[in-house]
Design goal:
alpha+beta; Arc Repressor Mutant, subunit A; 2 domains; 5 helices; DNA-binding; DNA-binding transcription factor activity (chains A, B); WH-like_DNA-bd_sf (chains A, B)
DNA sequence: CAAGTGTATCACATGTTATGATACACCCAT
DNA sequence: ATGGGTGTATCATAACATGTGATACACTTG
């Protein structure tokens, strides 16, 4: 609902999903789209927690997931940094996309939609978005 | 994991999602694909609960969601029936598909994928599936 | 050493999911 | 009318996920 800023980053947090998931997704998106540079330092746990009006524990949860997935590297005492490996980032992007595609097609298949129909629905939706 | 049968119906329940959600989805899929006829009576709460090795409350939860969405009509003392309205079914199918498409495109957009790339990924995935 | 990092661990609260049990309300065939 | 099969409501209980708030510890840098 509301947009919070911290440094050059912008965050929107709502109640539709766990907060730590939203934090992860927004970092993923920012990195993958090149809005955050490789190797860049991201806000400290405490700093981001304060900016988002959230407990450090919640941010910590997000940061640990990000490290597990290879999106970030954390250095105790120094901070948390976006991975400097372009390959890591591309792999993560591909993997997330592959999962999304697979789940989507599974869902559409359960609803009995064929490839043709799926393409048509996507085109219709994209047409709507571009208004 | 395991497949459970009750009458002519088949159910697979795993631990990836809430049980009641899986029940709803599998009825949705069966109805939308015509594997269950319109107006057909589905198993009683107690019967399905026993077949799935689950509490009646859990099945009840699923059945109430199914009625809320218009998929079924429940008649106290008689049982639960798939809606006899073809229009209802088609509306539900369209609505579920529209939601799936919208969420998918949102996710892909967050990952920075364009329409062209999305189509290509879908085609690749469908090619794999048809092996 | 001090300040700023990440990390770990409590206690606590809330909401969701699920179990298990009991009771009630309703419909239909006998 | 009664009995058996329906859906429905409610309660207690438990496990888990999510989030808050607080405290303490470990590490790095200046």
């Amino acid at each position: 609902m509301e947009e919070r800023r911290v440094g050059s980053l912008r965050f929107r947090i709502d109640f539709s999903q766990p907060i730590y998931e939203q934090i992860v997704q927004q970092f993923q998106s920012s990195v993958v789209k090149g809005e955050i540079e490789r190797g860049a330092k991201i806000p400290s746990v405490r700093e981001l927690a304060q900016a988002l009006h959230v407990t450090p524990n919640t941010v910590m949860h997000a940061y640990q997931e990000m490290e597990r997935s290879g999106l970030t590297e954390t250095r105790r005492g120094q901070g948390t940094f976006i991975t400097s490996s372009q390959e890591q980032i591309e792999q993560l992007r591909s993997k997330l996309a592959a999962v999304a595609v697979r789940e989507f097609l599974q869902k559409m298949n359960d609803l009995g939609y064929s490839g043709q129909e799926i393409f048509r629905l996507i085109q219709d939706e994209e047409r709507d978005e571009s208004l």
